[in-house]
Amino acid sequence: MEKILVTGAGGFIGSHLAKQLYEDDYDVRVVDIKWEGYTSEPYYTEKLTLDLRVAENCRKATEGMDHVFHLAANMGGIGFITEVGAEIMHDSVLMNTNMLQASLNNNIERFFFSSSACIYPTYLQEDSDNPGLKEEDAYPADPDDFYGWEKLYTEKMCEAYQRDYDLEVRVARFHNIYGPEGTYDGGREKSPAALCRKVAQTSNPGTIEIWGDGEQSRSYCYIDDCIEGILRLMKSDFNQPLNIGSDRLITINEIADLIIDISGKDIEKKYDLSAPQGVRGRNADLTLIKKILGWEPQIPLEKGFNETYNWINEQVNK
């Protein structure tokens, strides 16, 4: 039985990934510094609470493992990553460097790194009608925040470890992954969860606040589709960064209206033009992943947001 390590398994994507691997009968070791507790246990064979900024902890985490899915990071939504720079870069670069070196020293067969669409240049994301970002668009580099720069740097570090030490690496650039059992309050939540929470907490009739004018656009990929993409990539022979996301572009206003419709409430939108908004438009080009892995998202936004809103509404009402 293959022994799999999932770091960041107390978080959103990591917990869903660990759960799927565990259900697929892998021997799953999960590691994080804190545990959200949203996912019902057990979803692992072994659980370790470790600070992966410490090299010795990374050695302990990877010891005896065959494959590593490295999702641990200091991160959050736009309100967090626009305010916090040094902490994000310091913590994540330490974790990534230590995990790569520990994986090399412990003869890990294959190493997965979770990158982000935040690595893409701002000059390609100034229009809300974004045609889709191709993997090759990453350079010349110009991410819009420190989080994006950190992810791009680690992509290059993975490439260097692969070239210099023959460590097999796989890199996914996630585009706005959403779904139930993730952070929905506290300041680190991303826009889908934040909007669901605002609607769930609002009276009927009521009003919710939208950051910006609501015409900034994104594409969103449901967690189950994301996990399928990760597993296909890890099993493949493709060793370059690959987009995992959706190519269905939608504005924040449209997402808010969709969630309001799901809630059945009579809610109006008001706008805070001074709030963080990120890039104007971001979309995923899926040409390469369709060609390489035969993968594209299967779960419509309407179904995905129905599942997500209902779960967050349940949490709020507790």
TrEMBL record:
By its UniProt entry, which Gene3D superfamilies does this protein fall under? NAD(P)-binding Rossmann-like Domain (3.40.50.720), UDP-galactose 4-epimerase, domain 1 (3.90.25.10)
The answer, when asked if S-adenosyl-L-methionine is one of the entry's keywords, is: no
**Residues in domain NAD-dependent epimerase/dehydratase?**
4-245
Q: What does the UniProt keyword field contain?
A: NAD
Query: What is the recorded name of this protein?
Result: NAD-dependent epimerase/dehydratase family protein
Look up the domain of life of the source: Archaea
Name of one Pfam family that matches:
Epimerase
Q: Name its species.
A: Methanobacterium spitsbergense
